[in-house]
Automatic annotation (TrEMBL):
GO terms for molecular function: oxidoreductase activity, acting on a sulfur group of donors, disulfide as acceptor. It comes from the Eukaryota. It is found in: Secreted. PANTHER family: GAMMA-INTERFERON INDUCIBLE LYSOSOMAL THIOL REDUCTASE GILT, GAMMA-INTERFERON-INDUCIBLE LYSOSOMAL THIOL REDUCTASE. One of its GO terms (cellular component) is extracellular region. Belongs to the GILT family. This is Gamma-interferon-inducible lysosomal thiol reductase. Residues 1-17 form the signal peptide. Keywords: Glycoprotein, Secreted, Signal. InterPro entries: Interferon-induced_GILT, Thioredoxin-like_sf.
């Protein structure tokens, strides 16, 4: 009984530690240059140095115009065209299908090239490079599962409070303020270290 109580206490302690990690939520669109800049220059380095100390949430949707056709199906008109719509949906499918490190690596792989606008090409290339199941990913992106994911991302984006003013739109622990946005966007590692991780002895924060 004593051993069981010790194990339960340890598990509860882990759960509390996990819940205390700050969450950075990025509302973005696949071909937005400012989103790409934040992802490549801020979010990816923070992931490399601090991934054990914070959580990333990605919501690929952005400034999409939504309408319904005669059959009641939702039609999405993306700011940067069909290639962006595909990038949004395939990255959403990666989040659904793969684990945390895998979907982050996949999105990062799609964002890094200078000609990142070729989303169909890089989606397949990145999946194959990372040894992810391309058939499942492609089936999701081109089928009803992908459509459902877009509806969910639309709903999450639409009901943001305060309303999204542009992308990238950054939340910390579900909250958005100018202070959080500006500091996260300009120096994410420093922001996390100073505002959320200062009581922990983290090598990346002591540089």
């Amino acid at each position: 009984m004593k051993i069981q109580l010790i194990l339960l206490a340890a598990l509860l302690g882990c759960a509390v530690a996990q819940s205390n990690k700050p969450t950075i939520s990025l509302y973005y669109e696949a071909l937005c240059p400012y989103c790409r800049q934040f992802f490549v220059e801020q979010l990816a380095p923070a992931y490399d140095q601090l991934k054990d100390y914070f959580i990333i949430e990605l919501v690929p949707f952005g400034n999409v115009q939504v309408r319904q056709d005669w059959n009641g199906n939702y039609v999405y008109q993306c700011q940067h065209g069909e290639a962006e719509c595909y990038g949004n949906v395939v990255q959403s499918c990666a989040i659904k299908l793969f684990n945390y490190d895998q979907w982050f690596a996949f999105t990062r792989c799609m964002m890094q090239p200078r000609d990142y606008q070729y989303t169909t090409h890089y989606a397949q290339q990145c999946a194959q490079q990372l040894k992810l199941d391309w058939n499942s990913l492609s089936s999701c992106a081109n089928g009803p599962d992908g459509s459902e994911l877009m509806k969910k991302n639309w709903s999450k984006t639409y009901y943001l409070n305060p309303r999204k003013g542009g992308v990238p739109w950054i939340l910390v622990n579900g909250q958005h303020t100018d202070y959080l946005q500006n500091n996260a966007q300009s120096d994410l590692i420093g922001f996390l270290c100073d505002d959320y991780l200062s009581n922990q002895n983290i090598p990346a924060c002591n540089n």
